[in-house]
Structure to design on (277 residues):
C-alpha cells in the first residue's frame, strides 16, 4: 500500500507554547495567512479531502495517536500521497485549532487560488460570483452548493470574506478542494469576462424580476452574482448584470438566508442545463 514510507514520527509534539505550534495557531488570523500564503485545516474530513484531492498543497499534518489510529482511511490516503504525519498531544492540537473541540487532526496547506482569467478560459457553463459576502458560514455553504451542482468555479470579488478563513474552510466540508476558487477579483471585470465567455450574468436580488418568468433562460451558460447578506447588491453592481431575479416567498418568512437562496438558484440552473443537455 502506498509509498512504503513511515507514516508517522516517533516522537510526540507536546509543548503547546512552542514556536512551531504558535506559528500554526496564528493561521487563524488573516494577517498570518496573507504573510505566509498558508492556511489551517481542522478535523478528519478536511484532512481526508486534502489528501485525496490536493495532497500537493499539504505542508504539515498533525494528529494525536488516538485520532490517527481511528482513521484508517486517512492513513491510507497519506500513504498513497507520501505525506507523513507528526504525532501531537491533545493539548497541542487544541492550541493549534480554531474550534473549541478539535477532532484530533490538524493540517497546514498552501493557498492555491485560481486566476479569474483561468476561470473563463474553457467555456464554463455555470459560475458563481460572490460580491461582499461577509459571513464565513454563508460563503462556505455557497462553495459547497456550487460544488454540489457541478459549477465550474467560484469567484470572490469586493470585500468578500477570505475563503481560507478556518470557518469558511470547515463550512465547505471539503468542497474547497473540488473546484477552482478565484479571490480578490473586481466585479466589473469579472462580469465582462463572463459576458465575453458567452455567459449571461444573473443577480439574485429582492428587487429583481419574477424568478418563475425567467426559468427558461437559465438553461444557457450562466454566471450567478450573489451580494452582501444585509444589503444585497448595490445599484452600481446591479447595473452591470444582464438580469436580476428574486425568489418568491410563498409562506410567511421575511426572507431567505443568503446561502439558502444561492443554493436554490444554483440548483435551478443545474436542473435547467441538464434538461437542455
Amino acid at each position: 500500500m502506498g509509498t512504503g514510507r513511515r507514516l508517522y514520527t516517533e516522537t510526540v509534539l507536546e509543548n503547546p507554547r512552542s514556536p512551531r505550534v504558535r506559528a500554526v495557531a496564528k493561521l487563524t488570523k488573516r494577517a498570518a495567512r496573507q504573510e505566509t500564503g498558508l492556511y489551517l485545516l481542522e478535523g478528519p474530513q478536511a484532512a481526508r479531502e486534502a489528501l485525496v484531492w490536493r495532497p500537493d498543497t499539504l505542508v504539515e499534518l498533525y494528529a494525536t495517536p488516538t485520532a490517527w489510529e481511528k482513521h484508517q482511511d486517512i492513513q491510507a490516503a497519506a500513504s498513497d500521497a507520501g505525506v507523513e504525519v507528526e504525532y501531537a498531544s491533545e493539548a497541542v492540537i487544541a492550541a493549534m485549532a480554531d474550534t473549541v473541540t478539535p477532532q484530533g487532526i490538524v493540517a497546514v496547506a498552501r493557498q492555491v487560488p485560481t486566476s479569474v482569467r483561468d476561470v473563463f478560459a474553457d467555456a464554463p457553463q455555470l459560475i458563481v460570483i460572490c460580491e461582499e459576502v461577509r459571513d464565513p458560514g454563508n460563503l462556505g455553504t455557497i462553495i459547497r452548493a456550487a460544488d454540489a451542482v457541478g459549477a465550474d468555479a467560484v469567484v470572490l470579488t469586493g470585500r468578500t470574506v477570505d475563503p481560507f478563513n478556518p470557518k469558511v474552510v470547515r463550512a465547505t466540508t471539503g468542497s474547497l478542494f473540488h473546484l477552482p476558487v478565484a479571490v480578490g477579483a473586481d466585479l466589473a471585470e469579472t462580469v465582462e469576462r463572463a459576458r465575453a465567455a458567452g455567459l449571461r450574468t444573473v443577480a439574485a436580488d429582492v428587487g429583481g424580476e419574477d424568478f418563475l418568468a425567467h426559468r427558461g433562460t437559465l438553461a444557457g451558460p450562466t454566471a450567478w452574482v450573489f451580494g452582501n447578506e444585509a444589503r444585497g447588491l448595490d445599484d452600481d453592481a446591479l447595473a452591470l448584470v444582464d438580469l436580476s431575479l428574486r425568489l418568491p416567498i410563498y409562506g410567511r418568512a421575511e426572507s431567505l438566508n443568503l446561502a439558502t437562496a444561492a443554493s436554490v438558484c444554483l440548483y435551478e440552473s443545474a436542473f435547467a442545463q441538464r434538461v437542455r443537455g
Observations:
- The CA atoms of residues 39 and 109 lie 6 Å apart.
- The first helix runs from residue 19 to 25.
- The chain is about 40% helix and 25% strand.
